[in-house]
Amino acid sequence: MKLPRRNSLILVVAVMAAFASTAVFWSCDNTFHVFDDIQTEVRQVGTDIFKNATVKALGDDGTNYYAAMAKIWYRPMAGGDWKVLPIAGDSDYYSYSLVSNPTGAVIYVAVEKSGALAVYNGTAAGTVWTAVPLGSLEGLNLDDLYFSNGTLFALAHSGTGSTVKYSLHYSNGTLAFAATALADLDSPLLGIGWNGTKYFSPTSVNVYTGKADANPWSESPPPGGKSFGGLAVDSAKDIHLSTLDGYLYTWDGSAWSAAKTIKAKQTLGMVAEVETTPGSGVYRLLVAHGNIGYYEFDGATAIDGSDSGTAFGTPSSAYTTTVYGKSVLAVHSASTVDEILIGLASQGSSTGYALYSNTYASGKWSGWSAE
Question: pTM of the full predicted structure?
Answer without folding.
Answer: 0.87
